[in-house]
What does this fold into?
Amino acid sequence: MKVLFAPRQENIFQKFANPHFEISEDYQIIDQVLNDENIILELAKDFPDITIGRDRTPVEQILRFLVLKHQRGLTYRELEKTLSVNLEDRWFCKITQNVPCFKTIQNQLVCVSESTIKTINDRVMAEAVRRKLTRGRKMRVDSTVTEANIHYPTDASLIIDGIKKIGKTLTKLKVIPKGYRTFKRKIRQQINILRTIGRKNKEVRQKAIQKIVQMGKFVINKSKHFRRKSIQGIRKILEKIVEQTETVLRGEKPENRIVSIFDTHARPIPKGKAHKPCEFGEEVQIQEDEHFITHWDIHNKPSDTEFFPKAIDKHHELFDKPPKMAATDRGYWSPDNKEYALKAGVKNISMPKKGKLNEQEKEFQNTQQFKKGQRFRAGGEAKISLLKRAYGLDRCRYKGVPGMARWVGGGILACNLITMARLISS
It folds into this structure.
């Protein structure tokens, strides 16, 4: 049976065993914000209405599990452990009896959708506006890449992953066909060739990859008669990887390249960094005001220019007015975006133009107003760095598109709640 709210009951043992136990001010403030009934009712929409059976974990507790997990960067097992021993975390999550098993917590959090987290963040922003913590006078937009939890992909390594995955699945199901081979020894031989001679000799490298392709085709043929979804799904991915490898060997460039057999939605995104020319994951567009992350969006195919008008509209929706200053980097510039911001009522548009500047544009980009906007925009790099270092947006530990959305949304929501608590307490 679905349960919405979890009443907080005083634990007599904790009271007398720990007479000096106190709750931190940050936890108390976040607790007040999350006590909003509308937030709980919004989250409850992600869970089915079941009127029979034993009571499920209260929806209010699930929200607090999500915030605590991403605030501390905990795994599900670590979350279960800290809820068992940490009195402050137990108080925050309103746990009075036994702690749910880590698997139960995982099954509950998997149900939370991206749209729900965004709606909850909007409620948090409404509370910040009500408390006058932000006035929405400024807006900055920037993008970053949240990497998928995969190894560096090469054509040979992806085929080997597919061969191993099909072999493990067949062994687990105990349906290994007659004449099936795992190629463990031959795979090891070709890997050694690629790591030694193949680094310097292109012909040797291509021959080794072709042998690995032949092994992949053998495994595909041997497993094509099985109708189980688990085997068919892996086999189809392996077929695509073999095709794209053969395309590369012919000297052509494949389209919609697969970079992982375990997370097929991850994309190669070149960002031009010296230490990491290409990242493998999804691009995240982040929109901020003076203190908070007001909106975000996740894209398979990066397009900065398309996000800017949406950011202006979202800012107007949250604050009932356009920002006085909108600051971006060069990637968001387009004549249409500049015209859209002017029509929306933005007074200071600090958006460097792509290409060659005329005299009027040079003069404008040398004004104090424009430079002030660019200094404000540079602060967005610090917020992105904070999200990656403290809230896990550097690498997503969940799989698939829903997992990426839940990981990014949970980290941003936790960051906004901590920011609100520290602004109020200061």
